[in-house]
Specification:
single chain, alpha+beta, 17-stranded mixed beta sheet, 18% helix
Amino acid sequence: MTIFTKSVPFYKMQGCGNDFVIIDNRELGVPESAMEAWAKAICARAFGVYADGLFFLENSDDAALDYRWHFYNSDGSRAEMCGNASRCAGKLAHAIGLAPADHTFGTDAGPIKASVLLDGPDAGRVKVQLTPPKETKTDIILDIDGEPLTVHFSDTGVPHAVVFVDDVKALDIMDLGPKVRYHDYFSPAGTNVNFAQVVDRNTMLLRTYERGVEAETYACGTGAAATQLLASTLGLTDSFANLTTTGNEVLTIFLENGNVFLQGAAELTFQGELYLGPLGLSL
């Protein structure tokens, strides 16, 4: 007699240190109304798998899409897009036969084109074309504790504030990050916050405070894209740059003919069975 209750299979992947639980929902059929609760329970530290976010992969009714996802942050909030997760989605979808190496999938931010690189020096990495950036603004002056702070902004699928600094490693992100993330200027939805140090015209160092995770994460793909887009707009970098993240991984951002491409690693770390009863979940 087994002590375990009903289980469902899952995958765990990381993209430059941003980690995600992935559930193949094609046959499982978890309804959207339950996905927030699943994300909170499964991503929880100690009681769940522990991850920055969770997404479900499903078939799409749109013939132009190979599949679609439903993406949730660890706090259960639904996100329009996540760059690091999009690379994980692309690599896993190809690995399980859901899509070819070059494919398109649907997100709340719009269709995302993904290419799993199979040959050459970048084999194993994934390149995604992000949705067109929106609402790009430079030189926003915020009052932070009575002092002016120059912030730039771009929506690269999700909203991102970017602050350029001289020494990114010296910052107290857990103090400054929330003050920008929750600033009235970005209300009511708030924003992700990126702190970047320009090393040269093709190199930056990047740290990100992520909305929904409410902490610094090892990497943020859409944040890297917003940072490079704004750095290029301000004349600080050229059309491509390598951004070294908190997790010491490198994300490469290409700006080509008004399009933004993100390239980086995506790795399957393990897979297994989730027992729903102990998590307070059911089908």
